[in-house]
Amino acid sequence: MAMIESGSSPAELLPGEEQSAAPISVLGVAADPDGEEGLGELLAGDSLADADQISVATVTTPAAAPAHVDAADCVVGGPDLSDADRLELLETIRDRDRTVPTVLLAANPSRAVRDALAELDWTERLRPATTRSEYAHLADRIRTVVGYRRATDLARRSLAALAHGSDAVAIVTPDGTVEYVNTLFARQFGAAPPELVGRPWRALFPDSEVARLESDAFPSLADGWRWIGDCELRRADGSTFTAQTRIDALDDDSLVFTVSDRPVDEN
């Protein structure tokens, strides 16, 4: 028996667009945050920052940064920092958390500063902002680099949840190739995860079951429904078992197969 149902697809397992709209906490480091050569209007509380949900805390020396780095979504180094201060700031971030997005405002930093910046995971180097359009570009780059880091973190957590969760899950690319399986899924098929990744999803089912899914389940998926039913599946050694199987389609036409960890019939 098969069942189709509407409702949320497992898109919550993957990075969502709403991540970029979340408030952003910025730590600004500048010798004179309010001066002409400091971080300027944006990081001094300009309305542009408020509109973009960017809240800012400022410190005037890299030595004061460690107390604030852990709470920051992004660190911005002002253009009035010396190269020695820039190095100290970048080394602080590297030693504390190299994944913190960092934007350095510097027209011509030293080679040592450029090398230190390259050691961090999420970085931008921009020329100092002097006009409102340049402030807008700075805010945009802050949002972008923070958004990338948040999306990466969410993806990592999602994969961890799949790997250690209670469901046996496989993710299939739009071309029909198995891209990811967790340990529970692989165990159902008497295989290790690497043995299933790269195979066509059709190899997981007898030919008759593939034909049934393509004629029964896939049209429902194309209409935005989730398909659930008892399926005959094929293990790596060729033996078969029957288990409840759920299929969800993602927005990019990838598929998520979830197989019950308690087969209803053994052959």
Could you explain the architecture of this structure?
Helices cover 36% and strands 24% of the residues. It is an alpha/beta fold. The protein folds into two domains: 17-160, 3-Layer(aba) Sandwich (Rossmann fold), CATH 3.40.50; 165-266, PAS domain (Beta-Lactamase). Strands 1, 7, 8, 9, 10, 11 and 12 form a seven-stranded antiparallel beta sheet that branches. The protein is elongated and about 75 Å long. Mean pLDDT is 80; it is low at 3-20 and 44-49.
Q: For the report, how would you describe the main beta sheet?
A: 7 strands, antiparallel
Give the rounded overall mean pLDDT. 80
**Which residue ranges are poorly predicted, with pLDDT under 50 across at least 5 consecutive positions?**
3-20, 44-49
Note the gap between the termini.
Answer: 19 Å
Rough outline: elongated
Give the count of helical stretches. 9
Helix share bin: 25-40%
Report Rg.
25 Å
| Domains, number | 2
Total beta-strand segments = 12
Task: Tell me briefly what this model is.
By secondary structure, the protein is α/β, with parallel strands linked by helices. Helix content is about 35%, strand content about 25%. It has two domains: about 15-160, Response regulator (Rossmann fold), CATH 3.40.50; about 165-265, PAS domain (Beta-Lactamase, 2-Layer Sandwich).
